[in-house]
Amino acid sequence: MNFSTNDSHATIVKYVEANYAGIQLLHHSRCAIGYVVRGTKYIYYGDSRHTISRGEVFYMGVGNHYVEDIPEEGRNFEQIVVYYSPEQLQRILLNLNMNYSINITNSHSCERCRKHNHVSLPATTTLRNLFNHVTSFLYEDNFIHDVAAENLKMTELIYTIVSMEECCLRSKILSNVDAAYGSFEQIIYSHIFHDISIEELASISHRSLTSFKKEFKRHFTMPPHRWFIRQRLMQSRLLLISTSKSISEIGNECTFPNTSHFIKLFKKEYGTTPAIYRNRHSNFLVSSVGKLSDGVLESDIPQLQPSAV
After folding, report:
1. Is the pLDDT of residue 192 over 60?
2. Fold of 11-175
3. Cα angle: 129, vertex 176, 157; to 5 degrees
4. Where are the beta strands (DSSP E) in the chain?
5. pLDDT at 99
């Protein structure tokens, strides 16, 4: 893995995974644009699974992501990821607009963009060549001591994407220009596992309760209470399989202090109790990796390893 750690500029990272690590919970404090060099990447939303194949470019927004990186047979999983903040993107676009008068309007809208916190598509020849060039820079450790080179590559990447025709990838990236948008989502994701009321969240985000609810539904497509319950239950389901913690401990960790209420909510969402769910999937074998069909999560989930980027 090659990376630079100065948060004042974009961070370009090469990840190489030699061994299968299972489904992981990642928290992104910045947006990410990535490219799968080798292997297959899966992103999970509840019971649906989305595939990002070798040679595809992807965007992942700020917040929590459940991901699974699958190595190719006999070869490592490999990806290049560029992390950036909305403020960094704004500076890049302002510079490009001043010097090249590029079109930064965003009129694209579709169900895919509204519903998910990621998008992916096959990389164009230009994007593929750009990431291949970045790979050679990372191999030689050129970015670690050269902030200018890293920022130039980030600028080149953004210019290439915003010069594309209207598409989900372009739309997602341009939506980051609105600093308030990024700030609103950052507040929401950072409070998923806090015991906090909707009224308090509205106050923190400097909105009236009515305005907060409307904006929340626009970003997350469902009311706040329902969305928070679903996010917490998704986390509890993974903890049931990936840890030996008790039902009550998992409930507390996922902001369900009343164990009976937690069990009731879990059964309503998944059709079974936490204990039965855990017992049913306690004999998961890593050798079964790759047998899931797209769009369906069989719930035979391997070890969860939380990390943050």
Report:
1. yes
2. Jelly Rolls (2.60.120)
3. 15
4. 11-17, 23-28, 31-38, 40-45, 48-52, 56-60, 63-70, 77-84, 118-122, 307-308
5. 63
In sequence order, what DSSP letters do the residues of 234-255 get, joined into one string? HHHHHHHHH----HHHHHHHTT
State the DSSP string of 139-206: HTTTTTT-HHHHHHHHHHHHHHHHTSPS-HHHHHHHHTT-HHHHHHHHHHHHTTTS---HHHHHHHTT
Residue 206 pLDDT exceeds 50 = yes
Mean pLDDT of 88-115: 76
**CA 182 to CA 282: how far, in whole Å?**
39
- By three-state DSSP, how is residue 41 classified? strand
Nearest CA to 43 among 142, 149, 126, 117? 117
> Which DSSP state fits 60?
E
The per-residue pLDDT for 104 is 72
The first and second tokens of residue 229, run together, are 């319950």
Whose tokens are 């292997």? That residue is 39
What span, in angstroms and rounded, lies between the C-alpha atoms of 94 and 87?
A: 11
**pLDDT at residue 103, rounded to an integer:** 67
**φ, ψ dihedrals at 278, nearest 5°:** -65, -45
Looking at domain 191-282, its CATH architecture is Orthogonal Bundle (1.10)
* Pairwise CA distance, residues 89 & 92, whole Å: 5
Q: Could you tell me the residue ranges of all domains in the chain?
A: 11-175, 191-282
How many Å apart are CA 80 and CA 28, to the nearest integer? 15
